[in-house]
Amino acid sequence: MSTTGAPVAVHPPLAQRLAESPDGVLEQIAREYGVSTFEVVRELPPEHRTIVAGSLFEEVMRELTAWGEMLFIVHTPDVVLECAGKIPPGTFGRGYFNLHGDSPIGGHLRAENCKYIAFVSRPFMGRPSRSLQFFNAAGDAMFKIFVRRDESRNLLPEQVEKFDILCEKLAGRG
To answer: What does the pLDDT look like over 1-16, one tens digit per residue?
Structure first.
């Protein structure tokens, strides 16, 4: 108990918790432990994450334009916004990486703020998942791009293959 009478949550060390169960909402785990979302990802067992430099932003985004429809997520404390569509090509202009094309995914991304890109492969809600997560210097997720699922909720094998190939190609460049 704390001196205020409120119970104090006791957690196992973060790395231990993630080794025992890498499942869960990363942002929620970060709040529980009082750390950034990036710190949670960094503490995932190595088989569940590969972290590369944010300077690879343009290269990664260019690769994603050939993967087909994906799930683009922005997760803030107040909103989890999901948009399914093809990742459109982007160009730099006026301080942003501008996504434009025939896709519901569009907008202006501050690429220079991307410090790390994490290839995350872990269970989520009991099912395999694969995502690319883009982090700023504060350790906040700028956005995430998830491999899509089929009608049976299985990951699309062609996207899993592309994910694994890109991850292997860029590993060690972080």
So the answer is: 445 555 556 778 888 8
Q: Cα dihedral angle (166, 96, 100, 158), rounded to 10 degrees?
A: 10
- Residue 44 DSSP label: S
Percent of the chain with pLDDT over 90: 76
Split into its structural domains, the chain has a count of 1
CATH of the domain at 88: 3.40.1570.10
CB 134 within 8 A of CB 113: no
Q: Could you give the 3-state DSSP secondary structure of residue 130? A: strand
- Is residue 78 domain-resident? yes
7 Cα distance to chain centroid = 32
Question: 108, 170, 95, 172: which is closest to 142 by C-alpha?
Answer: 108
Instruction: Give this prediction's pTM.
Output: 0.90
